Amino acid sequence: MLVAFSISPISADPSGSVTDAVAAAVRVVRESGLPNRTDAMFTTVEGEWDEVMAVVKRAVDVVAEVSPRVGLVLKADIRAGYDGQLTAKVERIEQALAGDGAEETA
């Protein structure tokens, strides 16, 4: 499964910066050893249900250590029998954009 999630800590920093708290959450994901990708809005992680959800929980827990309130947005693509979709889905789109076509939709 793929899980894209975003953790939103409430910041006590007068500047509104949440960089350190978000970096701590991303560190948890990267140290998990699961395939992952972080962009400006979400972190996506790939693996089995229990291992992915455990990583999300640990990431939320790390943010909760420095924030009295934490928001979580989560989107999952659950597709049994498919691995490597973190990159394969993007590759299919790139092929379609290049005019090579894609046999399967993202």
From TrEMBL:
<dbReference type="GO" id="GO:0005829">
    <property type="term" value="C:cytosol"/>
</dbReference>
<dbReference type="Pfam" id="PF01910">
    <property type="entry name" value="Thiamine_BP"/>
</dbReference>
<protein>
    <recommendedName>
        <fullName>Thiamine-binding protein domain-containing protein</fullName>
    </recommendedName>
</protein>
<comment type="similarity">
    <text>Belongs to the UPF0045 family.</text>
</comment>
<feature type="domain" description="Thiamine-binding protein">
    <location>
        <begin position="3"/>
        <end position="94"/>
    </location>
</feature>
<dbReference type="InterPro" id="IPR051614">
    <property type="entry name" value="UPF0045_domain"/>
</dbReference>
<dbReference type="InterPro" id="IPR029756">
    <property type="entry name" value="MTH1187/YkoF-like"/>
</dbReference>
<dbReference type="InterPro" id="IPR002767">
    <property type="entry name" value="Thiamine_BP"/>
</dbReference>
